[in-house]
Write a structure and sequence with these properties.
By secondary structure, this protein is of the alpha+beta class. The chain has helices at about 65-75, 80-90, 95-100, 105-110, 115-125, 155-165, 170-180, 190-200; strands at about 5-10, 15-20, 25-30, 45-55, 55-60. It folds into three domains: about 5-60, Nucleic acid-binding proteins (OB fold (Dihydrolipoamide Acetyltransferase, E2P)); about 65-125, 5' to 3' exonuclease, C-terminal subdomain (DNA polymerase, domain 1, Orthogonal Bundle); about 155-200.
């Protein structure tokens, strides 16, 4: 229904962002909401996908059209819903995901929350050889952003943990990586990416 929404980033949280346009605030779920932080109170264009089911109507938003197209491709795989597709995109490891699909590397794919062996196999069957038109260059810099260093490192890490929890990772998995994250001096966006890298090892 909506190809994109152009508006001002009014709120960035662990699960979603709010884009205001025409005096309406749109609640938009994103793979890594904190990738929107550099645009706080700025006008941007967000590529959107409206997901409708019996008990829910939700908007999902992406900073690039390629991101959105890959999200839609993932939704077409049996066993992957919007939350699972967001978790895969949030990793920032899109190139690795595509390589895993092309090389039939199920062991890598099952590391994402909600992806078991059956779903990983289905991803390979459904998507192998069909992603080149969507991501011709693998867009390796998908979530690279120049975010100003935050003064409260602990708060940034806590926000990152909340975002990872929202993606479906368990308390046990998150406790395993927290000591390693605590050694880093990062902003929220970077903590999320670092956390996902550790979770995918």
């Amino acid at each position: 229904m909506y190809e994109y929404i152009k508006g001002t980033v009014q709120y960035v949280g662990p699960e979603y962002v709010v884009i205001e346009t025409g005096e309406i605030g749109y609640k938009i779920f994103a793979p890594n909401p904190f990738s929107f932080s550099p645009y706080q109170h700025k006008t941007i264009q967000v590529f959107t996908y409206q997901h409708v089911r019996e008990d829910l109507i939700a908007l999902y938003g992406f900073l690039s059209r390629e991101e959105k197209l890959l999200f839609m491709k993932l939704l077409n795989v049996s066993g992957i819903g919007p939350k699972g597709a967001l978790a895969i995109l949030a990793s920032g490891e899109v190139q690795a995901v595509i390589h895993a699909i092309e090389n039939e590397n199920e062991a890598f794919l099952v590391k994402f929350p909600g992806v078991g062996k059956k779903t990983a196999r289905q991803m390979i069957l459904d998507l192998k050889g069909k992603l080149q038109d969507v991501v011709p260059d693998y867009f390796p810099n998908l979530f690279q952003s120049d975010v100003e260093e935050a003064s409260a490192e602990q708060a940034d890490m806590e926000e990152a943990i909340l975002a990872l929890k929202a993606l479906g990772y368990s308390e046990r998995e998150l406790k395993r990586i927290q000591p390693k994250l605590a050694k880093e001096n990062l902003n929220t966006d970077e903590y999320i990416k670092k956390g996902l890298q550790l979770l995918l090892k």
